[in-house]
Specification:
The longest helix has 13 residues. This protein is α+β, with helices and mostly antiparallel strands and 433 residues long. The chain folds into 2 domains: 215 residues, UDP-n-acetylglucosamine1-carboxyvinyl-transferase, Chain (Alpha-beta prism), CATH 3.65.10.10; 209 residues, UDP-n-acetylglucosamine1-carboxyvinyl-transferase, Chain, CATH 3.65.10.10.
Length: 433
């Protein structure tokens, strides 16, 4: 198993290129099951989650070809009707298979996904939405059994306790495009990744109105055709590199950072006093002269609010800004497992209900830490960039789920970051359980 060693204290400089959005790719790969014709997908990041999804589609009968490191072609001439647990357990996003499988094959059996380290992520809204399309839904022996033989368009409300469901919206969208009649999705998620899925479906022949709003209308069609589509850039990856520049007081340019998808995040950085320049529609430059950063309060919300996927990385920055900051998590309330690890590095953070109370301004020092999830991994590496001494981040397999060559990209900017085998880590530093 690999670890990442960071020797902190260096300023960064240069340009970093942002890849395709993982959270768009996974439902887009699922959507390829909606047609028997080839679908070519470009700007796909080289991530373990993407490879897992490709394996799942292949196991379901699709022909999956990797044309180059960032281009895939998927042809689902035949599609199985059962997605077993040994496939689905690898990745929760595979729950997005339900919609396209039942829409295309008129029946499906998909294993219920397992738990998640950042908190409960129930699929009740997915099942409620499918039932509103007159799809038969049964849960038996750990599987969701779907009967789509009598499906028809309907009114679907997808609002939940923590806002709209992104994967639920994707599932109902994909089910509705091949369902006779007109479907209206109210309280639909409007994340850019959902918009990207809509644009792919439209390019395949789907009839969708209200893209990007909380009210989406779909007129079902008999069949979809193939397409050639390029995935949008990853706003979370872009935000992480902007924070890398901020936390090291560095001057870096992030290409592929689309400001229109990052308004709440950029507004909060501006409130904190961060100096940055929106160079063009897909380029943002962080300035190196960060001398007067201020504490801020952050509340994560579904888009267009502050993204939960940038919460952990933002905590790392706020730990270094003198004063009191409060970060409140409204999407995944348990998403603070990075806090004790930041504490090992000297951060003064306490958890009060759904909020992290950050008494910023204390210097960080390198320490061995443990990554609990994807975004926590990035947060701990960012903290290591600003810390004195060496930081060793373990369980970085989480990192490979959502960041392509994160260590290499940081190194290209001048960071002293190395991916090493865990055998190269001093044994007395290991914090493995």
């Amino acid at each position: 198993m690999d670890v990442v060693r960071i020797r902190g204290g260096r300023r960064l400089a240069g340009t970093v290129e942002i890849g395709g959005a993982k959270n768009a790719c996974l439902p887009i790969f699922s959507a390829c099951l909606l047609t028997a014709e080839p679908v070519t997908i470009r700007n796909v990041p080289d991530l373990s989650d993407v490879r897992f999804m490709a394996d799942i589609l292949e196991r379901l009968g699709a022909t999956v070809e990797r044309l180059d490191p960032h281009t895939w072609r998927i042809t689902a001439a035949q599609v199985a009707t059962r997605a077993p647990y040994d496939l689905v357990r690898k990745m929760r996003a595979s729950v997005c298979l339900m919609g396209p499988m039942v829409a295309r094959m008129k029946r499906a059996e998909v294993s219920l996904p397992g738990g998640c380290v950042i908190g409960p992520r129930p699929i009740d809204l997915h099942l409620k939405g499918l039932s509103k399309l007159n799809c038969g839904v049964e849960i038996e022996a750990g599987y969701v059994k779907l009967d789509g033989s009598r499906m028809r368009g309907g009114e679907v409300f997808l609002g939940g306790r923590h806002g709209s469901t992104v994967t639920g919206t994707a599932n109902i969208l994909m089910a509705a495009v091949l369902t006779p009649g007109r479907t209206r999705i109210d309280s639909a998620a409007c994340e850019p990744e959902v918009v990207d899925l809509c644009r792919l479906l439209i390019s395949m022949g789907a009839k969708i109105e209200g893209v990007g709003s909380h009210a989406i209308h779909i007129e079902g069609v008999e069949a979809l055709h193939g397409a050639d589509y390029s995935v949008l850039h990853d706003r979370i990856e872009a935000g992480t590199y902007l924070l890398a520049g901020a936390i090291t007081h560095s001057d870096i340019t992030v290409k592929g950072a689309q400001a229109e998808h990052m308004a709440a995040f950029l507004d909060k950085l501006s409130e904190a006093g961060l100096v940055f320049e929106i160079v063009d529609a897909a380029t943002i430059r962080v300035r190196g002269d960060q001398s007067d950063l201020r504490p801020v309060d952050v509340i994560t919300l579904p888009h267009p609010g502050f993204p939960t996927d940038l919460q952990a990385q933002t905590c790392a920055l706020l730990a270094l800004i003198p004063g009191l900051s409060i970060v409140t998590e409204r999407v995944y309330p348990n998403r603070f497992m990075h806090v004790p690890e930041l504490g090992r590095m000297g951060a003064d953070i306490s958890i009060e209900g759904p909020s992290a109370v950050i008494k910023g301004g204390r210097p960080l020092s390198g320490a061995p830490v443990m990554a609990s999830d994807l975004r926590a991994s990035a947060a701990l590496i960012l903290a290591g960039l600003a810390a004195s001494g060496e930081t060793w981040v373990q369980r970085i397999y989480h990192l490979d789920r959502g960041y392509e060559k994160f260590d290499e990209k940081l190194a290209s900017l001048g960071a002293d970051v190395a991916r090493l085998s865990d055998t190269e880590m001093p044994k007395d530093l290991s914090v493995e359980a």
